[in-house]
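Technical appendix A lists one of the benchmark inputs used to test multi-chain prediction within the project. The record comprises two sequence entries:
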Amino acid sequence: MRNGLLAVGVALALGWLGSGGLRWFDAALAGYLLGTLFAIFGTVYRYSVWLRRPPTARLSRRGWEALRRGGWPAVKQLLGLGVSNLAAQTFIRERSSSRWVAHQLVFWGCVIAAAITFPLTFGWLHFESVGDDATRYRAFVGPLATIAFDARGAFGWLVFHGLDVAAILVLGGVFLFLGRRVRDPGAIAVERSTDFLALAGLFAVSVTGLMLTVSTLWMGGRFYTFLTTTHALTVILGLMYLPFGKLFHVFQRPANLGVQLYRAAGDAGPQQQCSECAAPFASVLQMGDLKDVLPQVGFDYALPAGGSWQDVCPACRRRVITQAQAGRVGGFR
Amino acid sequence: MSPLARRDEKVFVIDQSRCIGCKACVQACAECGTHRGHSMIHLEFADRGASTQTVPMVCMHCADPTCAEVCPADAIKQNEDGIVQSALKPRCIACASCVLACPFGVPKLMVEMNQMMKCDMCYDRTSLDLAPMCASVCPSQALWFGTREEFADARPGVLIDEFLFGRQSVRTKVLTVAREDGPLDVASGRTARAWQDDPFGLEESAWPGNAR
């Protein structure tokens, strides 16, 4: 709770500073700001609770340790992993190409949308006319003047339609995901309600956003007020859903990078040998952590003769269980 | 309500002693809709030079799954009907904690996919009361799916759902078979010998762990 409130305080302070004491804050976006603050609070709160679970706390600590001790090579590895696992998400391509394309479309659509929406909401980014020329605009980051551009040129079109581009990318991904979810019997069998809710949310935000442009360009502005309200509502509900639904994986998933560093550190150290076959099967570092965590989550796999059942490699565990079972059936005796 | 959660539910039984190592289950497993193309069942030889015993293993679907408890990403979920699902794809961070913690040695880390996968008892089938793929093709019925009454009518032995790993007792949804009732103490497997290797008990005295 304290971390969540602290994060909201920091966000408000950054908003105050970045918007020149609310000088460039757009009051029409106040609803979005409230939704964003709620999302920040909920995300930080849930993340803090998640980090308190014994296995998560241990892994988090080990990940940061591995980064600190690994020095520059670990930083380079982290950057490489950031590109392959977070930006390009190549591991999803191993599941299926269509799933990778769908995820990339949704991911980059959301990144573009976030990069435009949040700076506007906090007042960090605003536009002003250049002199008396109403066709030219200049973008400002806080008080800093950046590029000026022709509002009717290609760059201007991209700037003012950035959210439309994002919405189209997201919709493409949503339809690909939906196609799989309604056709694949395996996906249907393990369907969770949050899977559809996340897609429905992304769909609603994208469609209502696009409708604002449609109303402006082709409907003479009809229904615009209704559409702005509907769009704001879907975005705010989406922001409120973010910390508690499927989309929370956006914040969890980067932990995978720490895991890779942790596993690399374990691989470089001594290896745990199986107490049955003597073959190495995991790092001593990870097995030690696991054996520390197991009692904390309510398990006691200590063996009467000493050691732990987890000292046995997975293949030997299966073999010993099978032999125990085969010894308990009768045969012809 | 899922058929797996009903009182008259069908049960999934694994009787390793019956396995003949034909690998039909390995092929059929890869046809399962929830992990198509990836076989999740384990099948190895126990000790190729000394025994005919083979080692098939499916997820036993523990009542209190160790894999889920040690998962730092909270990615492994158990359904109301007791089925422990593969790690949720968006959440799994591929740390392999579940692989190393599972007392039955079941989960597989698919390194290239950054994801843990495991047997989910063919949830697309068993949730509709159909046999898992492996049980539907197993010629020796080492893998078997049906009601307890059908089992009692057709097969010797009793069904067991409790395993002892040292001090840890683990109850499972998937059942195994033994001659008498009582939990299966896996430690006895270190010295036990498969019955096929001494079907009439002629060499029993040489195997103290097998004494009856």
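Chain B touches chain A through 85 residues (CB under 8 Å). Strands of chain B lie at 11-14, 42-45, 54-57, 108-110, 115-117, 143-146, 158-165, 168-178, 184-185. Comparable benchmark entries are summarised in Table A2.
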